Amino acid sequence: MFGRLVMGMMLVAGAAQAQTAVPPAPVPQSSKQELEEFAKGCAAVYLMAADTAKGDDLSQAMVRGASTVDYYRQSTGLTAEQVNQAITDMRDRLTERLARNPQPSLKELRANCDAAFSRAGG
C-alpha cells in the first residue's frame, strides 16, 4: 500500500514536470519608444490593408490590428483601455476619411495612427 502511494506520488510529480510549459522566448529588450513605433506600424499595415474596405471588412482589419497592438501594449505601458481607445479613434477617423477619400495615402494612415496613439498615451 505504502509503495503504491509513493509510486503514485512520483507519477504525479513526473506528470507535473512534464506538463510544465517551456517559458516563451523573452521579448527583445527595446526602448518603450521603439515598441510604440512598432505597434503603430503594425496598426498602419492593417489600416493600409483596409484602405478601400467598407463595413465589416474594415472592422475585421481593425480587430486584427488591435490584437497585434495589444501584444505590444504590455511592453509599452499603455493600458488596455488606452489601446482600445486608440483603436476606436483610428477606426472612427479612418471611416470618416474613407468617406471623403476611398484610397488614403500611407502618410495619411500613419498620421492617423500616430495621432491616435499620442492621444491614448498622453
What does this protein look like?
Mean pLDDT is 60; it is low at 1-28. With 122 residues, the protein is mostly helical. It has five helices and no strands.
Secondary-structure topology with pairs:
Blueprint lengths: L1 H18 L12 H18 L6 H21 L3 H21 L5 H16 L1
Keywords: Signal
Protein name: HdeA/HdeB family protein
Organism: Asticcacaulis taihuensis
Task: Note the run of SSEs as H and E.
Answer: HHHHH
Q: Spans with pLDDT under 50 lasting ≥5 residues?
A: 1-28
Major beta sheet summary: none
What would the principal axes of the Cα set say about the shape?
globular
Offer a quick outline of the entry:
The chain is 77% helix and 0% strand. The protein has helices at 2-19, 32-49, 56-76, 80-100, 106-121. The N and C termini lie far apart (65 Å).
What characteristics describe this protein?
disordered N terminus, 5 helices, about 120 residues
